[in-house]
Amino acid sequence: VAAKRNGQPAAEYDHTQEQQMRNRYGLLNELRQALQSQALQIVLQPKVELVSGQAVGFEALVRWQHPDGRVITPDTFIPVAETAGLISKLDMNVLQQTLSVCRDFLQQGVALPISFNTSSIDLLQPGYFDEMLAVIRQSGLPLELLELEVTESQAMVEYRSIAHQLRTLIALGMGVSIDDFGTGYSSLAHITDLAASVLKIDRTFISRLGESDDANHIVDMILRLGDRFGFQVIAEGVETEQQRQLLIEKGCRYAQGYLFSRPLPPEQALAWAQAHA
Ligand code: C2E
Ligand code: MG
Ligand code: MG
Ligand code: MG
């Protein structure tokens, strides 16, 4: 490990790498513990109808309540979980919480679909899909209230085997969203038979709406693909009234974003839905 220094900059580099490895190892251990101790909790971001502002559903997003008091967002630990073989456990845990929240909401008279994010690693792992379906069926919830999200870039990995699973879900009445759509280089050949019911326009295009011709055109194009091939389209990351107006003008019906609501703990999300029914 200790490279011979001799005052070479290379030695500093080694040191940094070692530090990063230790941080990663520490993070991984903490994440393992978090999974055991229910420190991973979901928050729910409302999805709305753009014109009326009414709630049309939610997305479940995982949060890590770290023992030191911080709340850690998934971009830090999802990639670690993915490379360390922990992601399936994490996603199954999130699914269980999603089902339980969905049941609570239903009992409180809020029958809105909730989506959950799923790594392609799960879907490529033998047995995961069957287990996922079994867990969903055991919940007894109407399948129309559940929606799986997979990112576009990931959905295109081993497209054939994943598409088969996604089609099964759609046939059962569940929703399937292609997340971060527009960033993953879907081939048009695949678009025509994309195994999905919803396209989620990636936030990077929404944030540049009105400022960039390219972003405007890409959003228009995705909306037209939706019309032509029968996908519902939802805009992610809407933060300003101007973006909302532009999306309405373009004929986009649904959105998610800080303009409407940040992701909320389940009880607050329920109250939000009741106030925006
Ligand atoms: P995503 O699925 O595309 O989720 C949208 C992300 O954008 C969320 O970040 C959300 O909090 C954030 N967001 C929503 N509205 C706005 C807005 O108006 N402005 C901005 N700047 N951001 C907004 P979050 O919760 O940090 O999640 C990041 C990513 O982590 C998610 O992207 C998803 O890919 C992944 N992820 C989250 N939960 C899970 C999970 O349970 N399993 C897996 N496999 N991945 C997850
Ligand atoms: Mg998502
Ligand atoms: Mg997204
Ligand atoms: Mg994302």
TrEMBL record:
The chain holds residues 457 to 733 of 733 of the full protein. This is EAL domain-containing protein. Signal peptide: none annotated. The keyword Hydrolase does not apply. It comes from Marinobacterium weihaiense. Keywords: Phosphoprotein. The keyword Phosphoprotein applies. Residues 24-277 form the EAL domain.
